[in-house]
């Protein structure tokens, strides 16, 4: 069974608009971490934002915020005020357990295109 | 600006040849991960190390792949012999390996093409 599901292969958004990229996860571990990475066409993987399973508040990093709904097992990424440079692949990932040494399991990704 | 570095950035080789990819983790990070990205499989973990000791290499084909950390500043991934199905982008990532907020930082990747 897939542990990370990203149901949107592609998304389009107008510049300056907000966009939500969906991510659902599956785990029975009470301790886990959720990550979002951005992969532009140049290929590098850029860390965007992290949410821990015990965090009471949704994580925010600049224009990025994570809409964490634990009961629904969803961790959607919200990008506000989209910019042309936001066009990229976006990957949701989960780490089960705490400690930092555990591997990440990635979703298939969502390709975001920001239109001028 | 601390970054994970990987060499080479691109490698084209012929089937049967040995391929060695190198990674320099961020100074101070004690966990190193090797991931492979393909269109079909997406991103998948091959192996990872903590304090230079291998913790998990179950994602790696054992007969042809090997991963080592000769020292804290160098991780290597070798394929011998290489096959066309090994064509992919190979990423190295590193982290501090402690604390629930620890993040893995990725290198730029090595794009491998096996003809």
Quick structural summary:
The complex is a heterodimer of chains A (116) and B (115). In chain A, the strands form 3 sheets. In chain A, strands 2, 5, 6, 10, 11 and 12 form a 6-stranded mixed β-sheet that branches.
The most extensive contact between chains is: A-B, 25 and 30 residues
Order of helices and strands of chain A: EEEEEEEEEEEE
Q: Report how far the terminal alpha carbons of chain B are from each other.
A: 36 Å
Name the beta content range of chain B: over 45%
Say how many strands of chain A there are.
12
Computed Rg of chain A: 14 Å
Per DSSP, the total helix count of chain B is 0
Proportion in helices of chain A: under 10%
**Strand composition percent of chain A:** over 45%
What would you call the structural class of chain B?
mainly beta
Keyphrases for this structure?
heterodimer, A: 116 residues, 6-stranded mixed β-sheet, 12 strands, 0% helix, globular, B: 115 residues, mainly beta, 7-stranded mixed β-sheet
